[in-house]
Write a sequence for this structure.
């Protein structure tokens, strides 16, 4: 006998939970440095166009397949492969399921770094964080990073153990409004710094001279990462949706929420760094180190740098937690479906996996630094494999499932149970033609970049 599947209480619970899955370190950390590096306003424009077309298409596809089957990704793919000569399609479900299992451990390591920085700002040690070499010294200290990693994991596990409505939905309803309010406060403070308006203009006003093909490739990769496409999350959350919930409207609201937070993140970081550096391109393009090395230096120049640092890292911690919760819930849901275990037992299994893979990532810059995979430490390797290889493949599998097995009419029928399918023509065109092309471009360009064939 099948156990009754967990479900969201309603539209607000789903939208805030799905938005929480999307709004994470990808928005607060990754989006600003990519925008700064690839043209500012022109990057933002390309990103918004892709989110409203490609992003919309993949969100609808994964959510509809999840709600149609009431299964996490493995079960969803298997449901359509059963009895047909496409049994190999289950492989697509497993890719979607394995991705969050591999992401959440190293993601939690970065979450632990955020915990450390927030703790130090609360202690009044902001000036220490701004010192040259502090960040590299911290991440090479295996004991310190491991403690912070475990603390972040404990937060996430407690929320997941509480379940869908009592854990994920309740926390999302609290965290997401707080996150938005904090983002607005920090953004207002940032754009009012002396010299910051030049950064606002660079970020918001498209300049065609800054456009390059890599702007499109980077924006595609970011949208992929930011909207939680091909991580199994949208299948799982779709399976928790009520049949009467307006899927198209909810998808639009998630897109708006996610893009809005990304824009606020850009306004928090780019104008502040612009004012601090005078628009120095090297500072603006500091890349992943922007949040942990450059921003503490920016905060140190402010009269209220400690308060700004606390606000900013509370915001980042909330964003990191909402995404980590979504990644772990997808993993736990898959284990529950495939192993037929209870939530508590699956949480324990996921905790063991997180500890093993997370410890490898945490120690990868320190005591395990001598162990490299294709020249990368564990954290960088897991990031490359999931984001650059597995996620494009998982999304391609979804496109194939919809176009060759399920069919557009069944997807449309699923959505039209509760609402009009207003963008049906756009959806069909993108998932049949443009989405596969975009995914192949992201896959090949990311691999070529790692191999040194092209520079991103």
């Amino acid at each position: 006998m099948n156990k009754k599947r967990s479900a969201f209480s309603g539209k607000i619970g789903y939208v805030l939970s799905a938005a929480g899955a999307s709004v994470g370190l990808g928005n607060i950390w990754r989006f600003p440095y990519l925008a700064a590096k690839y043209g500012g306003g022109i990057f933002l424009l390309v990103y918004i166009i892709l989110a409203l077309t490609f992003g919309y298409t993949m969100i609808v596809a994964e959510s509809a397949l999840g709600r149609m089957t009431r299964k996490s990704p493995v079960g969803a793919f298997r449901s359509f492969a059963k009895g047909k000569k496409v049994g190999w399609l289950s492989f697509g479900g497993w890719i979607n399921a394995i991705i969050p299992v591999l992401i959440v451990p190293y993601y939690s390591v970065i979450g632990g770094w955020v915990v450390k920085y927030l703790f130090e700002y609360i202690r009044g040690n902001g000036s220490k964080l701004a010192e040259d070499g502090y960040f590299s010294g911290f991440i090479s200290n295996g004991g310190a990073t491991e403690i912070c990693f475990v603390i972040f994991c404990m937060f996430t596990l407690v929320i997941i153990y509480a379940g869908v409505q009592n854990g994920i939905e309740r926390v999302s309803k609290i965290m997401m409004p707080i996150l938005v309010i904090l983002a607005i406060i920090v953004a207002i403070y940032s754009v009012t710094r002396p010299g910051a308006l030049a950064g606002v203009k660079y970020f918001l006003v498209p300049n065609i001279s800054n456009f390059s093909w890599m702007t499109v490739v980077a924006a595609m990769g970011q949208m992929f990462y930011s909207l939680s496409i091909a991580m199994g999350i949208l299948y799982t959350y779709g399976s928790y949706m009520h049949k009467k919930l307006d899927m198209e409207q909810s998808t639009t609201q998630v897109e708006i929420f996610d893009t809005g937070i990304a824009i606020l993140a850009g306004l928090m970081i780019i104008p502040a760094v612009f004012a601090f550096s005078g628009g120095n391109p090297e500072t603006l393009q500091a890349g992943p180190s922007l949040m942990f090395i450059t921003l503490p230096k920016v905060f140190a120049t402010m009269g209220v740098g400690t308060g700004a640092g606390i606000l900013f890292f509370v915001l980042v911690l909330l964003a990191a937690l909402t995404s980590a919760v979504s990644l772990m819930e997808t993993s736990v849901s898959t284990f529950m479906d495939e192993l037929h275990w209870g939530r508590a037992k699956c949480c324990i299994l996921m905790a063991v996996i997180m500890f093993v893979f997370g410890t490898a990532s945490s120690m990868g810059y320190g005591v395990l630094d001598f162990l490299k995979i294709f020249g990368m430490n564990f954290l960088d390797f897991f990031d490359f494999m999931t984001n650059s290889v597995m996620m494009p493949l998982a999304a391609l599998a979804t496109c194939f499932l919809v176009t060759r097995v399920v069919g557009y009419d069944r997807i449309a029928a699923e959505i039209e149970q509760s609402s009009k399918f207003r963008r049906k023509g756009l959806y069909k065109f993108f998932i049949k033609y443009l989405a596969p092309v975009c995914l192949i471009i992201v896959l090949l360009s990311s691999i070529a970049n790692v191999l040194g064939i092209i520079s991103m």
The two ends are 52 Å apart (CA to CA). The chain has a mean pLDDT of 81. The chain has 20 helices and no strands. The longest helix spans residues 305-339.
